[in-house]
Amino acid sequence: MCSGSFAKSLGITLIPLAILCVLSNILLFFPGGLVIDDNDHITKEVWYFGGIMGSGVLMTLPALVFLGLKNNDCCGCCGNESCGKRFAMFTSIIFAAVGVLGAGYSIIVSAVAIHNGPMCLYTNGTTELWTNPFVDGDYLNNHTLWKDCTAPEGIVTWHLTLFSMLLVMGLLQAVLCAIQVINGLIGAICGDCCGRCGSTDGAV
Fold first, then answer.
1. Any alpha helices (H) in the chain, and if so which ranges?
2. Which residues pair with 149 in a beta bridge?
3. Where are the bilayer-spanning segments (predicted)?
4. What distance in Å separates the CA atoms of residue 93 and residue 110, rounded to the nearest whole number?
5. Would you give the DSSP letter of residue 150?
6. What is d(CA 8, CA 70) in angstroms, rounded to the nearest whole number?
7. What are phi and psi of 124, to 5 degrees?
8. Contact predicate 23/166, CB 8 Å
């Protein structure tokens, strides 16, 4: 497969992932699927916009660049140094690095959020207060602690599910962008269609 075609397939994959990350981050602003009156009751990591900025907006830049790498015929530029195919593939490496950084940011925010747990109405005996009771991460192994978060209902599951999705999708995005770094290097060094250019030398 030509490096331009392969880059386009990566771009096609990254676009829906970016959209899903944005939607996941937006849903986190509605803990348990509810509208919260006080923004202080929303987990602070949600406000870092890992899914919206990191795996969303920043990821659309490399995705669109990858999609645009295959606008022309794959081998139409072979032997024509002015066509800029190699330079385009080299440029895609820079945008792929931007994608890795964006995904990395989302991964870090998601991992920290999973470790710290959600903000919730914590009940300890007769005392109730909005806090983040799981900052030590123990709740991941001790599910009996989850019942101490009395509101919003199902907040721990909501928190873990959405941030886990962001973590997994961020990892997948980082891998795809890293693959494009290698693909871009190949395209920059030997051209968009390595191994097929020679077959077109005598073409009319």
1. 3-27, 58-68, 85-116, 155-190
2. 122
3. 12-34, 46-67, 87-114, 155-179
4. 25
5. E
6. 6
7. -130, 95
8. no
